[in-house]
Amino acid sequence: MRKNKLLYILFALSLLSILGFSYVSDFSERSPIISCRQWGFYSSKGEKYYTHPEKIVLKPWLGPHNVYGMFKIPAGYRNDFFFTVTIDKTEIYCGVMKEAHRKFAEGVNAKPGYYLIKGLFNTRVAIGLILQGKGDQLKQPQNWKVGYINKE
């Protein structure tokens, strides 16, 4: 009888461990909210330039990767790893640049001497801003910006 109780306790502990681990791993796989870390931005001895997106897609209800901006960067220049979105001139959020050096993407053509790169913005943050009534500010290209420097 005592052996059966021990087996039931070990089984229950094992089951709880597996369930706990699966919960924690599911939680950690969710996309993180990008914080504006200094390592995501280039510092340059030369001049640093900034650009705004040519196109902004704001469709968070379609799921992840449906809030983004398409930026044009001149050839021979390197863009930051992060871009910023400024709301109400005081709230600054960061998104991550996706490596996609193309001439045409998402209905945007790059002029000769430029390439396109997609900046992904966190879907949960976008939904939160829309629910706060700041969706119109999120659609404004002047609120999004990415920096770039000369590769040399």
Written account of the structure:
By secondary structure, the protein is an alpha+beta fold. It has three helices and ten strands. It has helices at about 1-30, 125-130, 135-140; strands at about 50, 55-60, 65-75, 75-80, 80-85, 90-100, 105, 110, 115-120, 145-150. Strands 1, 2, 3, 4, 5, 6, 9 and 10 form an eight-stranded antiparallel sheet that branches. A two-stranded antiparallel ribbon has the order 7-8.
Keywords:
elongated, 152 residues, 8-stranded antiparallel sheet, two-stranded antiparallel sheet
Q: What is the SS-derived class?
A: alpha+beta
Taken in chain order, the helices and strands follow as HEEEEEEEEEHHE
Rg, alpha carbons: 22 Å
How many H/I helices? 3
**How many domains is the backbone divided into?**
2
Query: Major β-sheet, in short?
Result: 8 strands, antiparallel
Low-confidence stretches: 26-32
* Percentage of residues in strands: 35-45%
Task: Work out the helicity level.
Answer: 25-40%
Q: What does the average pLDDT come to?
A: 81
Global outline: elongated
* Head-to-tail CA distance between termini: 77 Å
- Strand tally is 10
Show the helix and strand layout.
Elements: H1 2-28, E1 49-51, E2 55-58, E3 67-74, E4 77-79, E5 82-87, E6 91-102, E7 104-105, E8 108-109, E9 114-120, H2 123-131, H3 135-138, E10 144-150
Antiparallel strand pairs: 1-10, 2-3, 3-9, 4-10, 5-6, 5-10, 6-9, 7-8
